[in-house]
Amino acid sequence: MTKKSLFLISSFLAGFSLMTVELISTRILAPYVGASIYTWTSVIGVILLGLSVGNYLGGYLIDKYRSLKTLFSFFILSSLFTAAIPILTTQAQFFVFLDLLLPIVIILISIILFFLPAVFIGTLYPSILKFYSEDVGTIGLKSGQLSSLWSIGSIVGTFLTGFYFIGHIGNNTTIFFISAVLFINGLFFYRPKIKNLIILIVISATIIYSPQLINKQNNVIFNHESNYYTIRVVDGVHNIFGNIRVLFLDFDAHSAEGLDGQQLNTYPEIYPVFSVLKSNIHNILTIGGGSYLIAKNFSDFYKNSKITVVEIDPAVTKTAEEFFNLKSYPIQTVISDGRIFLQKNNQKYDLIFSDAYNSFVSIPWHLATKEFNDLAKSHLTDGGIYAVNFTSAFYGKNSAFFRSMLSTFKKTFENYQIFSFGEVFPTDPQNIILVGVNSNEQIDPLELREKIMALKNGELLSSKLVIKKPLDDNALVLTDNFAPIEKLMTPLINNYFSRYAEFYYSFLKNQKI
Length: 513
Prior knowledge:
alpha/beta; 7-stranded mixed beta sheet; 19 helices; 11 strands
């Protein structure tokens, strides 16, 4: 292999490494702070900042020292700081508990994890260019060739990470693979003494092995990296619910079920209420699977009904089958996005229940707009029901998301009801379920409450019905053109984040909460 070929390959591998680290970085952060737009923004911004600093620093140092040993050092430092990402990630919860706004927490963690790897990967391009473009007269061509190979490497890294690395070998293994690529690449430019090489290998091995010795969580009975989430099934003890099994997708607790058969009285218990609103329910669609608890409740209560669940991640469905007894239920699963599924079929449903969550506590924005509500309504039978579950507060500074969701919902469903499962105080975050009926016949809330009282567990369910509906005609109506979910959720997340983080980490460590 000629030196010129080696420089071209090195540029390709550097671009490949950078984009792999950048793409996988949000997956690394998601179990700690979620995968919101704030996470993507912080990661991309920090990596671009590191790359800019590295480009300048690398150009300055390679001009000053003019040595392949310097290029070797940049590769080795890139390798070591990349390999250090998983061990530094184990300390991310320290920042989570700081009394800071969530976006600031995410930026801080991003800087700690990804800034230095980006800096030293950034030093590679000007250093490689220094030795590749010996003739100043052709520096434009040589720079273009290296830049082109860097970009091609970035493209390959993007597709391999998105379609293979994350779903097949996981975050940490991918990071260590990239570290090894950089390490080996560096050895082609300089052969250190055996003693120094052994020291480097020992340091690298220590970094790689260290995360396995930190934060072991024995109550995590299942841990898997899918193409969409870090999936964990955790058994623990809650001071109110008792022994429970919780499904975590990234940072979010998506489902909880009692291990001793106890009823938790959380929002999936709403299922009997729909029988009061519509007498004949035979065809049910649930958007979002999780542990499939709401779908299983539908199956138990609405006998002989056809129940379809649209779940975007097949690994979530498989987890529900293995750890939440889904195999015992005659529930059909379609692997798709909920909106795409409805757009592609003409099926009418008696009940559509939207229970899809994106990051932390927010639902995917494209399932919250007026256009999606209209689409859901078009798939309802006469008198059919559409219900959407989300987390917000009713009143106060934490309620902006609820007010926009309600204003948007009313544009499609004049006949609607509100249910709330969660905190006693309306200013606290809780599960809110908006229920719209495809009918012009108005329902008196007091009469509805009396009918719900007659149901099994009716006293509890009737207490969840909101009789006095809040009015806010000035709230933003969410549309496909403008649906700033994260902005609306920011006050709630900032006030709720530390409390949720305490639950999250305590539960993972098997502390009674």
